[in-house]
Every structure is written in C-alpha cells, then in structure tokens.
Write a structure and sequence with these properties.
Helix content: 55-70%
Number of strands: 7
Largest sheet: 5 strands, parallel
Shape: globular
CATH topology of the largest domain: Rossmann fold
Strand content: 5-15%
CATH superfamily of the largest domain: SGNH hydrolase
CATH class of the largest domain: Alpha Beta
Strand order of the largest sheet: 4-3-5-6-7
Length: about 450
C-alpha cells in the first residue's frame, strides 16, 4: 500500500488553477479564430450552393443605396443630386406655387440653365429635356451616356453636342410635369425635344393620396403636406420629426462606418450590416408615414386635400390615369405649338404583373406599400390602354412597361427604381424611338 500523499499546510490540496489558465487562454485564441473562419467559409458555401454566392461588391452597393435613399427619396449614388440634408441646405424641399414643391438646389440649377439658354453657343447643341418623377430624375443621369452614344451614332447628330436636361423630381406626377413644362417655356427655356417618362407615381401615389383623404390630382401628399400643413409645431409632430432625424443620422453614421471598415469583406458582417441598415431605413419610413398622419389630423382637409373623390378605392387610380392622359395631350400641344418633338414613355415597374422575372435579390428590396401595390396592379393595365389611345391620336407613345420582361438578372433597387444596367437598357430603347420622332 502506497504512502498517502503529503498535504500542504492546513490540509488543503495544491491549487493548480494557476497552471491551467494560460492553456485555456491559448485554447481560446486557437478555437475562436478557427470557428470564425469555418463559419465564414460555411456561410459562403451555403450561398454558393443555394444562390449566386456571396458578393462583397453587392453588399457595398446595397449599403450605398440605403445610404443614398436615407439622404433623399431618390436612391442613387454619385452625381450632383440628391444633396445630403445633413451637409447642405440645397436638399431642403420648399413649396413652389406652380409645381407643388422643389428642392432649393433644383431652383439654383434652373437659374443656371436659364442663363445658359440665353447665351449664344458657338457650336451646335441638341438639348433633350426629361420630365417625370424620381425614375426620370435617375434616368437623366444614369442613362445619359447611352443616350449620347446612340443618338451620336446617327448622321443627323454629326458634329452636334447632345445635352441632357433633367427635370424629373422625386414624387412628381401629372399634372406636375405639364405645369413644369409650361413654367419652363414661360421662363424662356425651350429645349430641342421633350421626353416624359412616367406612370408609376400617377397610380401608386394617386392611391396613397386617397388613403390620406387627398384628391388624386394633388401632388404627393407625404411630400407636399409636410411643407404647408398646419400642426408641425405640435408636441407629437415634433417628437416624430425628431425620431425621423435621429434614425436618419444613425443610418448615415452606421453605413459610413460599415463601408469605411470594409465589413463587406466578411459574409457574416456584410449581411448583418445590410440587415441593420435596412431595419433603420424601415423605421425611418414608418416614422415619416406617422408624421404625415399627424399633420393631416391638424390641418383643414379641404384647404390642402381638395374634395375627396367618392366611390371605392379604385376610383382615385382611374382618375389619376385620366389626368395622366389629358396632361400628356397638353404637353404635346405645347410642344407642337413651338415645333418641339415630344415623346411619351410609360416606365416599367417591378410589381406590374409580367414586367420582369423577379430575382431573389429583388424580393426583399422590392417590398412595397399596400397602396402602391394596389395602385400598380389596378393602374398599369389602364395606363397601357390610355397610352394606346394617345398613340392612335398621333402621339408618339412608347409602352416600355415590358422592356425587362426577358431580363432575369437583378435590376431593381426597390419597388420602382432600377440601377445602372436597367437605365442603360431603357436608354437604348428610348434613344431608338427618339430618332424616329426627330425630323
């Protein structure tokens, strides 16, 4: 029988924990990085097997798009528009007596264009004015290179400088385009051709106006009433406005931080960053909707909303389409009187049945307000029918609502705006149709 182990003083066993903790730390230093690497590879493998694989560039683009939409309602990066409200007062939206509202920066650009039109040029120019909502605003920038290339290849444009003048504005809808064109003619701005690219805002925002108790012919009430409605000084409205600005600031700070630190290099961190930014964006939109509701509750409905159209909820969409048709006739008449060629194009949109095979990436990005969805599904068949009637009357109308019908790749940034590739495809079609209109 062996001798009993000698105990230390006071009869306690020796404490060996001090010898184990360096091993535990070393084990942690090995296990955790290995787990992170295996997790990263595993996620990338799952994405490769069940999808198109993880793309760091796609994550950077998604974060950039969310950052741009947070700065304004028009989701584009680069260019001079939109301006960041946190950095420049040019982004501030102001009430306008003829078109409802305009950004201060837009008014500045308009004054520059007036001066340019008064200047006698020493070289030949072709000025194409583009009207519409935010899709037209984006198209004027993203589609410019393609328009210039296709038009420039035609012998009629040899030695001619093609200039694109963008008069599309986020939320604009007929009869705002009509009023804007008349206003520009009154200011002395007469382009060589006019393109109106619209359709979505007419039916989607017309339906939304009805929900807020506003006539379908009025400007988009979330854009307009926040400028002119009474009640903005109420405590509830101030609290919601502070919440909107706070969330916008948080999203701006987060996306900048995520992009600067290249979180997109990691599949786990990249996807987490996009989900976090998207959640902040949703919170901002929900608060904006609540803000409009509060303002509408404190204003005289008839003073700003006009007489409510009676009947079921489809009637505002039908009214919007009728206004769209008549306003286009007016634009054509104004252009004809000045011998300016006019082309009217119905824009494509994601949730118009048959418009495009919806890519998995577009499912989440393309989440749409119920009013907008019903407006699109009810209104787009009516828009196509009304456009065909305009064409029979002699208007140069192009139904581009199916231009992406055979494009499987993701194009849309959200429910109605498409990225660079989509704008290039649309520009090729529009440029070809424009050549048919020009003398």
């Amino acid at each position: 029988m062996s001798a009993p182990e000698e105990l230390p003083p006071h009869g306690r066993a020796p404490d060996r924990s001090g010898r184990r903790w360096p091993k535990l730390v070393l084990l942690q230093l090995v296990v955790w990085p290995l787990a992170i690497v295996l997790g990263e590879l595993g996620l990338r493998g799952v994405r490769a097997v069940f999808g198109d694989g993880y793309s760091a560039d796609a994550v950077r683009t998604a974060l950039g798009d969310l950052q741009a939409r947070n700065r304004e309602f028009t989701p584009k990066t680069g260019g001079d528009l939109p301006w960041n409200p946190a950095e420049s007062e040019r982004a501030e939206r102001v009430a306008h007596p003829y078109v409802g509202y305009e950004a201060l920066g837009g008014l500045e650009v308009l004054e520059d264009q007036r001066a340019d039109f008064r200047t006698t040029s020493t070289h030949r120019e072709f000025r194409l004015a583009i009207f519409g909502g935010s899709v037209a605003e984006i198209f004027a920038q993203s589609g410019e290179a393609t328009l210039r290339r296709v038009l420039g290849a035609d012998p009629r444009f040899r030695g001619v400088d093609v200039r694109i003048l963008g008069f599309g504005r986020g939320g604009y809808r007929q009869p705002q385009h009509q009023a804007f064109l008349a206003y520009l003619f009154a200011l002395g701005l007469e382009p060589d051709a006019v393109l109106c690219l619209d359709g979505f805002n007419e039916v989607a925002l017309g339906r939304q106006n009805a929900r807020f108790g506003t006539h379908a012919s009025f400007p988009s009430i979330p854009h307009w009433s926040q400028l002119v409605a009474r009640g903005a000084e109420q405590p509830e409205a101030i609290a919601i406005a502070a919440r909107i600005r706070g969330t916008q600031a948080e999203l701006e700070e987060f996306t900048t931080w995520a992009l600067d630190r290249e979180l997109a290099r990691s599949a786990w961190l990249g996807e987490w960053a996009v989900r976090r930014a998207a959640a902040l964006r949703r919170e901002t939109l929900e608060a904006s909707d609540a803000y409009t509701q509060v303002l509408r509750a404190n204003e005289s409905r008839l003073a700003l909303g006009g007489p409510m159209i009676r009947g079921d909820l489809e009637l505002p969409v039908q009214t919007s389409v009728a206004i769209w048709k008549e306003a286009s006739r007016n634009m054509r008449a104004m252009c004809t009187a000045r011998h300016v060629p006019y082309l009217h194009v119905l824009q494509p949109t994601l949730h118009d049945d048959g418009a495009k095979p919806i890519h998995p990436e577009e499912v989440e990005k393309g989440a749409i307000d119920t009013d907008w969805l019903e407006g699109v599904r009810t209104g787009y068949p009516l828009l196509r029918a009304a456009g065909a009637e305009l064409e029979q009357e002699g208007e140069r109308f192009v139904d581009a609502s199916r231009i992406f019908a055979n494009v499987a790749e993701p194009l849309y940034l959200d429910s109605c705006h498409f990225g660079q590739r989509g704008n290039e495809l649309l520009a090729e079609e529009i440029a070809a149709r424009l050549l048919e209109v020009l003398p």
